[in-house]
């Protein structure tokens, strides 16, 4: 069905799926009408994309901190002899959503989330206790400037999440999170399936999602795509050393660049003095020239371009995961 979509309709489809997913009983019908397809054609197309690995899932994407969770990026130096064991151990933790092998002496970069009642740094130390003799960097976010993994459409500037905080969530909220963070089935009435699982009305789901959006606990409801399958072959984390008085200025400029999907201020260390982190996705082979041009324009002399050598784990961050991890 993809051949039926002209470039403009395809851009609209990506936008609707990722940023404007309709909270209606038949969302795929509403989207199909907008892009000139039949409902059955759109569902078939999405199933093809899912089978090909382009579409990861359509689901609710929550802000972990609003539900008492803490998360952080960690970087680990692991020698070649222990690398395979370290990867297996880190990947097996239910709170690890992302793990990458990168071209630096700090070669493993992973994101860990822990629920309320667990100490994030202690959990990471216990997880990596056999591999930390060369160093473990704890890199919590100090400020968020942009977090928007939206591909195939023009993006606006960054979003500010500084007002986010935990609210008094209930057991019913937890049930909703656990069900709605899982993939939406690709059927005509997908929310009916979720409502049956939750033993509630579809309207209850929509009302709850709108409430979570209003209080800041829901980032968005929409599709997640695998960037490599959309032609973004190069995943690069660029870390910048920016003097404190210029951080906001530089971060806001970087956040306007389409290739940059994430921009954070993180904790820095004397042995790793970089404080501004950007995730970049490129289709072109000359991406290093682009990064160099950004640095020149912004007047930032000290930066590192850390290429992803291998994506070791990338799953939707799960909140309220049930099982404890055994060390």
Task: Give a brief rundown of this model.
By secondary structure, the chain is α+β, with helices and mostly antiparallel strands. It folds into 2 domains: 2-65 and 166-227, Arc Repressor Mutant, subunit A, CATH 1.10.10.2890; 71-159 and 228-314, Alpha-Beta Plaits, CATH 3.30.70.3460.
Description:
The protein is an alpha+beta fold. The protein is 33% helix and 25% strand. Strand 3 and strand 4 form a beta hairpin. Residues 151-164 have low confidence and may be disordered.
Instruction: State the secondary-structure class.
Output: alpha+beta
Number of domains: 2
Strand element count = 11
Query: Given the structure, what is the number of helices?
Result: 10
- Residue share in helix: 25-40%
Sum up the structure in keywords.
Arc Repressor Mutant, subunit A, 2 domains, single chain, about 325 residues, two-stranded antiparallel sheet, alpha+beta, 11 strands, about 35% helix, 9-stranded antiparallel sheet, Alpha-Beta Plaits
What topology does this entry show?
Elements: H1 7-18, H2 27-35, H3 39-52, E1 55-62, E2 70-76, H4 80-91, E3 96-102, E4 108-114, H5 120-127, E5 136-139, E6 141-147, H6 171-180, H7 190-198, H8 202-215, E7 218-225, E8 234-240, H9 247-255, E9 260-266, E10 276-282, H10 287-298, E11 303-314
Antiparallel strand pairs: 1-7, 2-4, 2-5, 3-4, 3-11, 6-9, 8-10, 8-11, 9-10
